[in-house]
Amino acid sequence: MMTRRINIFNQLFFISISLLFHLLPIQASPVFAAEKVPVVGVVSSSHPLATEAGLSILRAGGNAVDAAAAVQFALNVVEPQSSGIGGGAFILVYMAKTHQVYAIDARESAPQMASADQFIGHSFAENSSSGIAVGVPGTLAGFNALITQWGRMSLGQVMQPAIHLAEDGFVVTPYLAKALADPRGQLMRAPHSPFFNADGRPLKLGERLVQPELAHTLTLIAKEGVSLFYHGEIAQAIVATQRQSRMGPAGWGRMSLADLANYHVFIRKALNFDYQGYHLVGMPPPSSGASTLFETLGLLAPYAGQENWRDPVFRDHLSLQALSLAFKDRGDFFGDPEQMQIDPQAVLNTAFLKQRSHSIVLGKLPSDRVLPPSPSGTNTTHFSIVDKEGNVVSCTSTIEELWGSGLWVPQYGFLLNNELTDFDANPTLANGQASPNQVKPGLRPRSSMSPILVFKNDQWILAYGSPGGPTIISTLVEVTQGLLDLHDAPQQVINTPRYAVMNATGFTLIESSFPKPLRSNLEALGHHFTLNPLAQGSVQAVGLDETYHYYWGAADPRRDGSVGYQ
Ligand code: GLU
Questions:
Q1: What is the pTM of this model?
Q2: What is the best residue among 81, 83, 182, 380 to mutate for testing ligand 1's pocket, by most ligand atoms within 8 Å of CB?
Q3: Is the pLDDT reported for residue 32 higher than 70?
Q4: Could you tell me the CATH number of the domain that includes residue 504?
Q5: Number of folded domains in the chain?
Q6: What is the CA radius of gyration of the chain?
Q7: Is the dihedral of CA 140, 556, 292, 394 positive or negative?
Q8: Which end of the chain has less neighbouring CB within 10 Å, N or C?
Q9: How far apart are CA 288 and CA 267, in angstroms?
């Protein structure tokens, strides 16, 4: 009954917003858009100009795949601290006509000279700001493969909006201004770096960021294709740049021209999970995101239908425990598929889940020691798109930490990732076994990035995901519960304050807005929390309302999230 009332309320809200949007066809703020039959589609990304880039491609006759490429290249320009051609991405595509899902792995890979001990003896800060952490970038190859296989437009066409944004510049938003002022922004000090003004201070809110080097690079690639990046002059510039180290002698990069020339995109078999009448699809390894999310949901499934599931104390008490258990399996079993000893679906097997769920305690928890997590990036970006034909893209894309490695490729204007720090720095696990996520030549580091698609009765209904390193997994547990268990309004679900379980010992971060009474009730049950000084994640979602069959979009106000539809 409760669920129903909420749905009706949502519908009224959607209709009023929808009427408003007839006057304002492109909405560049983190609010709902709703339209029964969109003229071109719905785009939700973490920057209004990237959202507009996607819409402009849909308007010009491109499909969701073409729009996704345009959004990604535009994000390289307007959100350079989070993703770009110097990084990697996971992309889920649903093609409505054939009803097929494709999982594209454009993750960075370790160079042939990489070794399991390469991070030992140096601090995380040193490693993560040195060429030693730079993986062979996959984003450009990934989006090129995507549009070649499933798009309608050329690379040149989908790059146009990004080229204009880099050439003409754009106004620095609050989120970008904050990232520029962050100490990691200082790592990018290089001659001609466009992020600093003539006096050497980082650009501020309201100032214009113009990136002529990046415009030049994108124009070259648009004309000559991606081989320039993987074989030509840009490959040489990448190899030269990753031979640097920003903070101490952690070690120069070991990438060679051959590593770039041999980079390949994988189209992998997606991970599937049935949950409460829904069919969820996610990225398989080297991502651990979907498997850890699905395992958590599987452990909680016996409780999710109960009346008291709406009670956040009950729900979070069990969810925090289920997440810790799933993080344990993530650490023990997950990495690049080539070094995993189990099939990723094994942790989703009914018998395994049943046996594992016996460790969930309904009453007060025994007092176990909570250990801090290993350092990791909390950046990256997620966008979701549906076009008028019902094709869908859900993509999470990264350069790992804020501003990646901080190594900016001179004359070409993009940042190199520090993704290889997602490998375990120590090749041996605490239990003495070999880590399934140790650095190995040619392999890809374990990720938490989890673009998700949801289907009901064979009908696509949802696409979502988030940045935030390991916090992604808790963010998506919370969002999935809000949308699929509680049927709350998507924007309300996204805005809700978050927690993040960070490891198997239950180390848990909470946002400063996390409700105090909920926190004390959970503490009384034996949970421990650490305040997260940062906002957690940035969820961008699009969906098809199950009851009234209109498309909607929702974006996260924690960054510059923006929904556009037309
Ligand atoms: N490198 C992280 C991962 O692949 C993503 C970093 C982030 O989301 O900020 O899980």
A1: 0.93
A2: 380
A3: no
A4: 1.10.246.130
A5: 2
A6: 22
A7: negative
A8: N
A9: 16
Q: Determine, yes or no, domain membership for 432.
A: no
Determine, yes or no, domain membership for 516: yes
CA 198–ligand 1 middle distance (angstroms)? 33
Distance CA 46, CA 29 (A): 10
Contact 556, 30 (CB under 8 A): yes
Task: Give residue-wise pLDDT tens across range 250-294.
Answer: 578 999 999 999 999 999 999 999 999 999 999 999 999 999 999
**Whether residue 185 sits in one domain with residue 166:** yes
Contact 241, 217 (CB under 8 A): no
Rounded Cα distance, 330 and 336, in Å: 12
Q: Do 158 and 278 belong together in one domain?
A: no
The Å distance, Cα 562 to ligand 1 centre, comes to: 21
Residue to probe by mutation, ligand 1, list 91, 402, 472, 534, most atoms within 8 Å of CB: 472
Residue range 60-88, pLDDT digits in tens: 999 999 999 999 999 999 999 999 999 99
Question: pLDDT by residue (tens digit) across 290-307?
Answer: 999 999 999 999 999 899
Residue closest to 419 by CA, chosen among 89, 104, 78: 89
Strand 278-282: give its sheet, edge to edge.
Answer: 33-35, 551-554, 541-544, 459-464, 452-456, 278-282, 271-275
d(C-alpha 344, C-alpha 499), whole Å: 25
Q: Give 109-125 pLDDT, tens digit per residue.
A: 999 999 999 999 888 88
End-to-end CA distance of the chain: 34
SS3 169: coil
Structure tokens at 92: 């889920």
Range of the domain at 82: 42-267+380-422
Indicate if ligand 1 lies below 6 Å from the C-beta of 449.
yes
Asked if 172 and 259 sit in the same domain, the reply is yes
390 closest CA partner among 38, 60, 92: 38
